[in-house]
Amino acid sequence: MKSFKVFISAVGVLCGCIVSQSFASVIFEEQFNQLDAGVWVRENVDGAQWNYSSNYGGTITATSHTNFTNQYTDILSYKNDFADFIFSWKYMITNSGPYNDRRLVYFRSAQGSPSPSGYVVYIGADTPEAPQNWVAIHRLDPSLVGMSASAAVTWQFNTWYNFELEASGYDFRLKVWQDGLEKPDTWLVEVTDTAAMYSEGSIGFGNFMHAGTYVDNILVETIETPIPEPASCFLTAVSIIAVGLKKLKK
């Protein structure tokens, strides 16, 4: 009877390893064959607006503005319950603009004035007046001095970059790599919001002033649960059997 219990325990470990395997599932996907008004809501300020473009097989773009006022334009998903996820997208910067031209990628955000609330990936392209080749993760406080972490990136204009953002609880981390290059193993930016401000919201994109930008290949997935190594499971089961047999001999 004891030997049977030992066998059942070992089988349970192996089955548990198999059952515990899980894979990421798609929450949201957008390839931009059009700009679907039922999926995205646009904020239009001073004539600046995100639009569909047939360039690069279908993208959305916010082009350079024509005057020198402080302009912005945002686009957010109507879906507003993104919580924990892996959010990836492709991004191209076409110009720096003559001023401190910023780009934002919103997550766990909500519409607001003068700009949405929530968290952002903040992309700064170099300008003669304000050198700022970097990327950051911010919490959108009024003065933008809340939770923040950044890293230097030397952006190349008219070049696609891949972004991957993980939001797990209030821990956020980001990878960025040039299209065609190997995805890095390490995270470029990591930060925790100890204030735990925003638990869910929309995703979207923001463009300021004279920034020229293209966006494509949006994918939001669940966070993949680590899969136990088969060898580790097997060794655990063998250990249980060995211990059980040792006890039976006593």
Oligomeric state of the chains in view: single chain
From the N-terminal CA to the C-terminal CA, the straight-line distance is 15 Å
Mean pLDDT: 79
**Unreliable residue runs:** 4-15
CATH topology: Jelly Rolls
Shape: globular
The biggest sheet, with number of strands, parallel, antiparallel or mixed sense and barrel status, is: 8 strands, antiparallel
Question: Strand portion, in percent?
Answer: 35-45%
Rg from Cα:
24 Å
Give the number of helices: 2
Pattern of helices and strands? HEEEEEEEEEEEEEEEH
Counted up, domains total 1
> Could you say what the CATH architecture is?
Sandwich
Structure summary, number of beta strands: 15
The CATH class assignment is Mainly Beta
Q: From the helix content, strand content and strand pairing, which structural class follows?
A: alpha+beta
Keywords: Signal
Signal peptide: 1-24
GO molecular function: hydrolase activity
Protein name: DUF1080 domain-containing protein
Description of the molecule:
InterPro entries: AL/BT2_dom (IPR010496). It comes from Candidatus Auribacter fodinae. GO terms for molecular function: hydrolase activity. The chain has helices at 2-19, 230-249, and strands spanning 26-30, 40-44, 51-53, 59-62, 72-77, 85-95, 102-110, 117-124, 134-139, 148-152, 160-168, 171-178, 189-192, 202-208, 212-221. The chain is α+β, with helices and mostly antiparallel strands. It has one domain (19-249): Jelly Rolls (Sandwich). Strands 1, 3, 4, 6, 11, 12, 13 and 15 form an eight-stranded antiparallel sheet that branches. Mean pLDDT is 79; it is low at 4-15.
